């Protein structure tokens, strides 16, 4: 009897080391071609540097250099002023794939896979056969350590080729130097674009880029404060996988179901934990180790039925609408766009991981009218430059019918065509990238939905803005007619008839029949003493320095109706701004709006309103968002109906 | 002195198990959402089954079933008649990531990563907490073994939960049954599409799909022969990475450089190996173990300078132009397209791996005129249904200016708009997928270029076809005029003048001044005895069975020039066809064309030519490609200039 083929086949079965796997599949890591390889190497180095600095509370000062380019090879250097890495860890961190500190923690960070920087060294070794050089210094009073590293891909381990102590001027930091096969000529532009975009969404970082010919670009920091430190949290029960739940129960230290729920998950207080147990018909005192699969299933289903608080956003560090606006303004300063609108969604959850979406739209100016809208994609403050086609951001944008918002979109889906830039930032404790090269977000329904909602919100603001403009222009025509031509006619007629000029107020109000609200925002430099808060709103950004800007908002309200009008007016302002002088005295000031209960305005009479905002850059706030209450909004030009509480 | 932050950070560094990594990054493997998860699970199972059958020379008979769908969960079953798997290997193959037989071999196969099927089990366990069931039988006279499997993700190892012997009717085979979280309602269509597309490019496979409601779809096999078995080869020297070269030198058994080159690389004979050594200025007898990095560099550069034979295509199994044409015809049978053209490129190399590109274009019929062209993408006979946006196939197609070929393409790049379907197949010993989910090909320049060349070739054929059609229509008008109206006028005038009808030949030839070639292809069923080859061409497909089709090609050549014409005529035919009767006697028959040295044709005289082709399906060959030699092609309608040898 011949031996079954299965025995023959079994002999060929082999384990594959993870380093070997990625060595053969380098395109998965973003090293598919020499242009991209250069970009990916710089990106992984810089992402790592930023994470290390932020984790240690250090304002990042990052230096990137590309040198000695030949047709085949060049040297990439990334240096930071971070906390450094202890000698023993260097081979693990830089030359061992799937090794890192950020994989197991639920917190927003750039790195999350433990692959990036080791992949750069792996690629460098694969394509040049040369070893990488790492310099690291962990404390000012200690010398730096230089390590030359190779990777044993069969074992997925770093091999120290040489190690020596050396002097380094920095108090602390890390410097990576890798030789790699790269196309410097074509890749340079991508490196520049990436560093520029990175600096836009990381205003606290100073980034220097030295080109091979010696040209230095410095992207200066524009903020001296680190972004809010992201707290590490527990997974949120919404969307946690059944398998993960079972695995967590095996690893918990809790001996009772209720305490397991409270300690190992976020957003779980006594009341919610008990409600979940009751819903699942499980004893709160059950030992997690003794729970059966069916009981876990009941628990898993109970998560969905009980109302659980949204995840804390402490673990997330969104860019913020003001900063998005600012970076879009910066990106388009030579284009003089017609308007910029932003929208920010509340935090949401997918498979247990909190995430948050922020978007911005720039419209008009010199942007090309016949090209697809330009997309700027960011994930956890990393610019995504490749793989736009299959990113959840692209899919979400393409699925909106933009024709309703005045953009061209042949066949009603796809990237719209028109003079606009769309920026999207997704912040999450775990970005679901489509591959290890971290260039596109996977098609997770929850994320796509949030992106859609954010863009719809933004688009609605645009529509509102356009409608308001159209309505204002129309009313303005009427206004001009009656306020300029009517008195002229009255005067001439009176003169001809030799009669006194008749009072026109009643006629004007009858024809206009609206309350007209007009506003203007001007900026003034702060001189002398720092501005102080005068009102009860709490400031999210703290003390305002002298030398900054004050936005002065002047609002004129005229009653062109035939009866006196009395109503409430609301003016929204950006969350990070600090309110200064307000006239007349407002009824209420929160962290996002000012409310006035206006006194009664007689027909054809006018009220002037003024408020000042500090803590903004010039241009952060260009146009008031005004709302009215206790008046039919159909009669108001320049403000909408207040829908707030 | 406070401890450096680096020590604190070092404590958090941890190894990540590969199973744990993919468990948390399941979107990378194609399990990003429940719809896609269903599709991916079926795909991995079927790809595996097809590979196993083909490797063992078994005509695949594959059964796919999805059952018990709830809103959250369903059961996926994939069963094959392959060689089975020995008991000891089951936990490794199905529940250990990065373990397999195809990773280390240079040969075209669907699986190449050692991840696919284990990922399905991993996802199933993660989302349902249930174990997978594997049944395997390796020999007719042995019982089958049922194994219940779990995965220990911390260790990346399979854990046998239960194993028992059972009876199974099949001679041999494997059956996988996995519970998983999936959206059956939305995912069903993708499973169907995938199985249908798979059956198109794998005509030797019989695939049955049983839906959850019991409906069964059978995709019958249309060919009883397995595709050519792909040989395992050594890496090709072109594009092999320097690091890989060094690694190979460490692992070789050869003790001399020349023999290392000959035994460890493909396309390396004595002469080439010596030429490479000479070019690199290296002694042929050098021990590979003693070669320095600089010497390797010289060797690596010498590879590029010495002309090395293209890689053998024995390791590749392209679909073939006829089959592509046939599948496109099948895909569009309700559309009645105007034409189908195909093109096939010779094998090429990227980073040491041979690959080959084949494309096809269907045009016209009822295909929508205002939608982007439909792309059908295949890699190693696997249909690629997702991530079209960032696939090298898409990028290559989008970079061609299709407006030159009569398709609409706003802004001159991007997927063209028009009534067409573009099919692309990339066959390679290693497809560079963008991620482990194997849904898109990475942007490797060599591959993109070959795809572009193939489509340009195909587009040129289309252009030629269109030009020929336009020219023919124009000449036809002239032809109708002079052959119908002129004699009519002559007759009437002669009648009126009471004179004899003048001879018109000279006038006709003077006005036409062309050689007119027209052809028609008709199909006839083969009856009785199998057709036999009559001529010297070698048949690539072997014996033609009775009951097949014969294509009868009739070519009419008329001389409408004023002098006798004598020239050579060439008719191309598909490579897999067998030539039957040919009249008049040809001068030459190769495996791709027939040549006639035609006798001199007098003015207004006609020659009829006929040839028969067997071994084709009806419609495989619709239109002759005719070429002429020894005559000014500008005077010929219906054939182009012969550019061959």
Structural commentary:
Two copies of one chain form a homodimer. With 645 residues, the first copy, chain A, is of the alpha+beta class. Chain A folds into four domains: 18-219, 2-Layer Sandwich (Heat Shock Protein 90); 237-310, Helicase, Ruva Protein, domain 3 (Orthogonal Bundle); 338-462, 2-Layer Sandwich (Ribosomal Protein S5, domain 2), CATH 3.30.230.10; 504-641, Immunoglobulin-like. Chain A contains 14 helices and 26 strands. In chain A, the strands form four sheets. An eight-stranded mixed β-sheet of chain A has the order 7-6-5-8-3-2-9-10. In chain A, strands 11, 12, 13, 14, 15 and 16 form a six-stranded mixed β-sheet that branches. In chain A, a hairpin with a 5-residue loop joins strand 9 (206-210) and strand 10 (216-219). The first copy, chain A, is globular and about 120 Å long.
| Strand segment count of chain A | 26
* CATH level-4 homologous superfamily of the largest domain in chain A: Histidine kinase-like ATPase, C-terminal domain
State the end-to-end CA separation of chain A: 85 Å
Greatest contact pair?
A: A-B, 90 and 90 residues
| CATH class wording of the largest domain in chain A | Alpha Beta
Oligomer kind: homodimer
Overall average pLDDT of chain A: 87
Largest sheet of chain A: 8 strands, mixed
Q: Write down the domain tally of chain A.
A: 4
SSE-based structural type of chain A: alpha+beta
Any guess at the CATH architecture of the largest domain in chain A?
2-Layer Sandwich
As a percent range, the share of strand residues of chain A is 15-25%
Poorly predicted regions of chain A: 531-545
Helix content, binned percent of chain A: 25-40%
């Amino acid at each position: 009897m011949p031996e079954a083929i299965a025995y023959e086949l079994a002999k060929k079965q082999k384990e594959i080391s993870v380093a070997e796997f990625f060595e053969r599949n380098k395109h998965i890591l973003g090293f598919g071609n020499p242009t991209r390889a250069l970009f990916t190497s710089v990106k992984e180095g810089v992402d790592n540097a930023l994470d290390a600095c932020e984790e240690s509370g250090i304002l990042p000062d990052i230096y990137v250099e590309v040198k000695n380019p030949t047709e085949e090879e060049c040297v990439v250097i990334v240096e930071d002023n971070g906390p450094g890495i202890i000698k023993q860890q260097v081979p693990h961190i830089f030359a061992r794939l799937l090794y890192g500190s950020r994989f197991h923690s639920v917190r927003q960070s750039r790195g999350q896979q433990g692959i990036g920087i080791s992949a750069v060294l792996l690629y460098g070794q694969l394509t040049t056969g040369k070893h990488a050089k790492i310099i690291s210094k962990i404390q000012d009073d200690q010398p730096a350590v230089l390590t030359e590293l190779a990777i044993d891909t069969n074992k997925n381990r770093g091999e120290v080729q040489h190690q020596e102590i050396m002097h380094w001027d920095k108090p602390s930091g890390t410097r990576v130097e890798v030789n790699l096969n790269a196309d410097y000529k074509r890749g340079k532009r991508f490196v520049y674009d990436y560093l520029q975009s990175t600096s836009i969404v990381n205003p606290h970082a100073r980034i220097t880029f030295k080109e091979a010919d010696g040209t230095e670009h410095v992207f200066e920091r524009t903020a001296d404060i680190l972004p809010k430190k992201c707290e590490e949290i527990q997974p949120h029960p919404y969307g946690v996988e059944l398998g993960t739940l079972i695995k967590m129960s095996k690893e918990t230290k809790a001996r009772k179901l209720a305490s397991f729920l409270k300690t190992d998950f976020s957003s779980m207080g006594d009341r919610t934990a008990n409600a979940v147990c009751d819903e699942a018909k499980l004893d709160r005192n059950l030992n997690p180790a003794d729970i059966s699969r069916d009981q876990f299933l009941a628990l898993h289903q109970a998560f969905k039925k009980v109302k659980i608080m949204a995840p804390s956003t402490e673990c997330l560090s969104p860019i913020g609408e003001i900063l998005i606006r600012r970076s879009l303004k910066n990106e388009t300063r030579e284009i003089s766009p017609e308007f910029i609108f932003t929208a920010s969604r509340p935090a949401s959850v997918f498979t247990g991981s909190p995430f948050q979406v922020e978007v911005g739209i720039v419209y008009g100016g010199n942007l090309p009218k016949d090209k697809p809208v330009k997309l700027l994609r960011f994930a956890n403050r990393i610019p995504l430059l490749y793989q736009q086609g299959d990113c959840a951001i692209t899919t979400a944008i393409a699925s909106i019918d933009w024709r309703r918002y005045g953009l061209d979109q042949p066949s009603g889906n796809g990237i719209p065509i028109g003079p606009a830039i769309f920026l999207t930032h997704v912040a999450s404790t775990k970005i679901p990238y489509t591959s290890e090269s971290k260039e596109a977000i996977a098609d997770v329904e929850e994320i796509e939905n949030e992106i859609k909602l954010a863009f719809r919100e933004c688009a609605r603001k645009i529509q509102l803005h356009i409608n308001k403009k159209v309505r204002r222009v129309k009313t303005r025509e009427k206004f001009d007619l009656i306020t300029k031509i009517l008195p002229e006619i009255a005067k001439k007629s009176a003169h001809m008839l030799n009669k006194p000029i008749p009072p026109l107020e009643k006629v004007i109000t009858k024809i206009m029949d609206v309350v007209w609200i007009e506003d203007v925002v001007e900026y003034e430099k702060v001189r002398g003493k720092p501005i102080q808060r005068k009102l009860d709103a709490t400031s999210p950004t703290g003390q305002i320095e002298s030398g900054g800007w004050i936005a002065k908002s002047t609002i004129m309200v005229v009653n062109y109706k035939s009866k006196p009008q009395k109503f409430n007016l609301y003016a929204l302002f950006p969350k990070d701004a600090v309110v200064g002088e307000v006239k007349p005295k407002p009824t209420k000031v929160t962290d996002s709006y000012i409310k006035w209960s206006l006194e009664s305005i007689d027909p054809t009479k006018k009220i002037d309103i003024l408020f000042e905002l500090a803590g903004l850059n010039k241009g952060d706030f260009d146009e008031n968002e005004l709302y009215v209450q206790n008046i039919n909004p159909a009669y108001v030009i320049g403000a909408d109906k207040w829908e707030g509480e």
